[in-house]
Design goal:
The protein is an alpha/beta fold. The protein has seven helices and 21 strands. The longest helix is centred in the C-terminal third of the chain and has 21 residues.
Length: 320
């Protein structure tokens, strides 16, 4: 069955895919988003948004909605335990220049808000649609997706792969993901623990050759993110067995905590050797993957989508 989806078909309903869909829809472009999963992922990933991201959210009309579901961070901690260094960087120095705070919330919150705004503009978001094949010609590109009701062919003038670092779009196009994979592994955990009583700011880097970590508050209900590193050669399936020893470096014995979720991640520094093949393009982690320190993954992913939306809309409207 061939279905015409309009101007642009986006593969991937993460924050980059949904924000790009919204940006295109605001420019009058018809957009459909397909996602293999049954809904927006709430796995522990990006959750601190600095000025470059907040500027984009403001331009898209999302900032107020995101802020209402976020915690404001007004200081940043930099800790080097071996040297007894505990620095507090105040965001107030940015007052009058740009935002003097950052926003903290799970990236699933941003994605769901983007989805709501996009759907109001006519964007269709189809879950349980798994990409299995791609073809294209001079005028259109076709994505074959597997759905609960069988296979479907979805045709659009352009297709954007925003389906993450393991991008099916990129793999089907046989585009090299050049770069390297770090030897260590990150374990991202969401945990109920009052880190503010343990000397931590709203967002923190812990710099240590063995126990480096990112620690940041997620919401106003006591949920925090503790992402720590471990040796990537250790068996990934048993990471939870090693977690108590890692936690002991950051949380003093006797301090109550409750783990809500935990996921191990391989850390990449990679970029696709091309971000376009004919009428199929890449954005976000499908195009480029970086380590999560500093929030540059979602920041650069979001902006690749914003720049692409400007360019692609201009091409569709024959302005460029």
């Amino acid at each position: 069955m061939m279905i015409d989806t309009g101007d642009v078909l986006i593969v991937g309903a993460g924050p980059v895919g949904l924000l790009t869909a919204l940006a295109l829809a605001q420019k009058g472009v018809s957009v459909t988003v397909v996602e293999a999963a049954e809904g927006v992922s709430d796995a522990p990933r990006a959750m601190v948004y600095f000025a470059p991201t907040m500027i984009a959210l403001h331009e898209l009309g999302l900032l107020d909605d995101v802020a209402r579901q976020s915690v404001e961070g007004r200081a940043f901690g930099h800790h080097v335990p071996d040297f007894g260094v505990h620095l507090k960087i105040e965001n107030s120095v940015m007052a009058g220049i740009t935002f003097d705070y950052q926003l903290h919330c799970g990236q699933d919150i941003v994605a769901r808000i983007a989805q709501q705004h996009a759907e109001r503009l006519g964007v269709r978001v189809l879950f349980n649609h798994k990409l299995v094949a791609l073809t294209q010609n001079a005028d259109s590109a076709i994505a074959t997706v597997q759905t609960p009701d069988g296979a479907r062919d979805l045709r659009a003038k352009w297709i954007i792969g925003a389906d993450g670092a393991r991008s099916t779009v990129r793999q089907l196009l046989d585009i090299e993901f050049a770069g390297h994979t770090w030897g260590n592994r990150f374990v991202a955990t969401n945990v109920y623990c009052d880190f503010s009583t343990l000397g931590y700011q709203a967002a923190n880097f812990v710099c240590d050759p063995t126990y480096s970590a990112v620690i940041a508050v997620i919401d106003n209900k006591g949920l925090w993110r503790l992402t720590y590193q471990e040796d990537g050669t250790l068996p990934v399936d048993s990471f939870m067995e090693r977690l108590p020893e890692r936690y002991g470096f950051f949380i003093p014995q006797g301090t109550p905590f409750e783990i809500a979720s935990a996921n191990p991640y391989t850390i990449h520094q990679r970029c696709a050797t091309t971000l376009r093949q004919g009428r199929i393009l890449l954005a976000g982690d499908a195009a480029h993957a970086t380590n999560p320190c500093g929030g540059l993954g979602l920041t650069t992913g979001l902006w690749s989508g914003m720049i692409l939306s400007d360019t692609l809309a201009a091409v569709l409207q024959e302005d460029a």
